[in-house]
Design brief:
- The chain is an all-alpha fold.
- It has one domain.
- About 85% of the residues lie in helices and about 0% in strands.
- The chain is built from 8 helices and no strands.
- It has helices at about 1-20, 25-30, 35-70, 75-95, 110-115, 120-135, 135-155, 155-200.
- α3 packs across α6 and α3 runs antiparallel to α7.
Length: about 200
């Protein structure tokens, strides 16, 4: 039981950091700036539902996807780690990459749910959670993280006012560093697990 709780905590933290709803607060604020309170609620509800559906699809059929394409966990860990590292570098090196949004009327499905929340990084992390911890943990983590994301989405206005533009950008950079650390761990784990059998 303790092991499952620990695995669930690891999966939740990894997925939450990758989805980065707090770091995306400036974009959420820009997208919904001209919406009424009712429209904002519908937008964020849609984003949460669509995001959860996408994560559940990969949680439930992730193993089948691996089998169809003949992908091993080690190979996917390395590829996923490289992908996440590139995402982290882009966030760290770009001043306004996360704020180039000029359509505040956009609804929750696109671009909030996909690709802002459930992008390549979140999909990679969900599939890896499935492979590393099992389907119950992967699905549980998806539900918990989407719920937390929904709460943050509903509080976007308040959070943005408290953090301000500078504070939100600082949090985005810190999240990017954590993403880079997770990416490095994925790559190291994949390489070690691949090489280890040949060293015995």
């Amino acid at each position: 039981m303790v092991g499952i709780v620990v695995d669930l905590a690891k999966a939740i933290i990894a997925l939450f950091v990758i989805m980065d709803p707090v770091g995306n607060v400036p974009i959420f604020a820009a997208l919904t700036e001209k919406m009424t309170d009712s429209e904002k609620r519908r937008t964020f509800n849609t984003a949460s539902i669509v995001g959860l559906a996408l994560l559940l699809v990969f949680s439930l059929v992730g193993q089948e996807i691996f089998a169809i394409f003949g992908i091993s966990l080690n190979g996917f860990e390395v590829a996923g780690g490289i992908l996440l590292f590139i995402i982290a570098i882009r966030i760290l090196m770009s001043d306004n990459a996360r704020q180039n949004v000029d359509s505040p009327e956009s609804v929750g499905a696109v671009p909030i749910a996909m690709p802002l929340l459930v992008g390549p990084g979140a999909i990679t992390t969900t599939i890896l959670n499935l492979q590393l911890y099992g389907i119950l943990v992967a699905v549980g983590a998806a539900f918990v993280v989407v719920f937390l994301t929904w709460v943050i989405l509903r509080s976007t206005g308040k959070i943005y006012r408290v953090l301000g533009k500078t504070g939100s950008l600082v949090i985005a950079r810190v999240m990017a560093l954590l993403i880079a650390a997770i990416a490095t761990q994925y790559v190291l784990s994949g390489i070690i697990n691949f090489v280890l059998p040949y060293m015995k």
